[in-house]
Design brief:
By secondary structure, the protein is α+β, with helices and mostly antiparallel strands. It has eleven helices and eleven strands. It folds into two domains: 158 residues, Roll (Pdz3 Domain); 112 residues, no CATH class.
Amino acid sequence: MIRIWGLGFWVGLSALGAVQAPADARDRVDWDKIDLTAERRAIENYQRYDQLLQNVGWRLARANSEFCDRVIPATGLQLQDMASYGAPEIARRALGLSGDFAVQTAATGSPADLSGNFPSNREVVRINAVNLNEWENQGPFDWQRLARAHDLIDASVQGYEAIEVGFKDNHVSVIASVPVCTTRFELMGEGKKAVADGSRVVIGIEFPAFQYEEDEFAALVAHELAHNLLSHTAWLDRNKRKRRNVRMTEREADRLIPWLLANAGYDPRAGKRFFEKWGPKGDGGLFRNRSHDGWDERAEFVEAEIPRIEALMDSQGKADWRTHFVREIDPDKGLER
């Protein structure tokens, strides 16, 4: 299942992400003490980071779909649900909504983006015939309902069919889907970590690469995406997370970075630049101890892939990593015969 979106419930805004209050207290918001302009700015700041992640994630997942084992249709649309915030009523007022659902992001170049109908915070009422606001919610920090809405979108585009989105202003937009590699991209509202779990890539909003050039940030996303595309989580589950096994999967993910970047139109050498920029300060933080090669070694492994990639791009116009990438691990090891 792919969703090119983050669920949004990690965002830690001033009042919106505050400690959950009892139900009766939430009904007594002192509006004189709430700066709605500041709250909206906080939401929009989070959305800027999320937009970059979705843009890069979409570009990588779309451009490499020809070579992925698992592919699914997607629209590039990401919603937000006020119930996922710590103070839903404040979030609703800050964004000027009457209901709970609105656009979070539309990944650049995706069907949702190309339609021109999905600016951030535009209020959404329904997906096909389903009125999302009629679904029961569990109150503040209810992320499950938003996940359900995204599951509905996933189910609705199976077979590469279109979905119909109804807005509060009575406008209706029909968007088709296109195949992408199966991974969803989520922004965490705090922290400096970047992880992949087999189906998601999750990056903390404080990760330094958000401040790098886009192709260098894309190298970070590509590393985590590579773990999912190469089924590393499942392989480690079967073969145990010994230091040697983890190190092989990390090296393999590093080496796939320039392949994914090249197919997406990024500079494949951006992977080397990412490690050179991040490594001197970050090595031992996100990528810890001996389960990873040193940052300088990692940069060299990335660089070593470039000649083969450039030759393939020159001769075929694409870097077919499914055929030409040399694996560090036996992907079938541990499978039942």
